[in-house]
Amino acid sequence: MDLYIFQQINFWAGKFFWLDCLAIFLAEYLGYILIAVFFFILLRKKNLEIGIIGFFAVVLSRLGITEIIRVIWSRSRPFVENKVNLLLNHPDTASFPSGHSSFFFALSAVVYLYNKKAGIFFFIASFLMGISRVFCGIHWPSDILAGAIVGILSGWLVYRICLPHRLPHKLLYRLSHRLSHRLPHK
Q1: CA contacts within 13 A on the Cβ side of 178
Q2: What average pLDDT score do residues 19-42 get?
Q3: pLDDT for 69-78, tens place per residue?
């Protein structure tokens, strides 16, 4: 099933120049835009808590859970064992789960839990990034799905641990309060 879905998406790579350019942009550069938007959200003094929780969610998701899974199960990328329409150069590293998806879906989940409209934008962008990485030939669809699940669960878990009226939340409040006093005021 994974191979079939991959082939249906990757089949279109190399057919239309504009579609290839769009997919490469989404797969490689959309993440930088999301990070810039996330930092823009943080510029508001009351949103520093989102940044701290987002940081811990991303670390748990990308550097923790994703890397543990990759050590346990090292799955090769589609271009290693199959003939694919490869649009991006990528090292032959483990692909399951997708590190990009786990990172950006964790960030999306945290943003969504604080701001639904911005969170929906982040989720749509993360989805487009993930599907573009399949289109470009560097991930299996299940890599993206697993990364999304890991990311969303990590974001939700870190958020739940840091809910109001708990010790970690008070620590986060103190940290964000101290950081906000060090930022220049407008």
Answers
A1: 6
A2: 94
A3: 999 988 888 8
pLDDT tens digits, 106-139: 999 999 998 999 999 999 999 999 999 999 999 9
Dihedral angle over CA of 109, 114, 118, 123, nearest 10: 10
Nearest to residue 147, comparing CAs of 104, 86, 88?
A: 104
Whole-angstrom Cα distance, residue 73 to residue 14?
31
Q: Which position has the token pair 């899974």? A: 69
165-168's contacts with Cβ under 8 Å and 24+ in sequence apart are none
* Amino acid in position 86: L
Buried b (16+ CB within 10 A) or exposed e, 39-67: eebbeeeebbbbbbbbebbbebbbeebbe
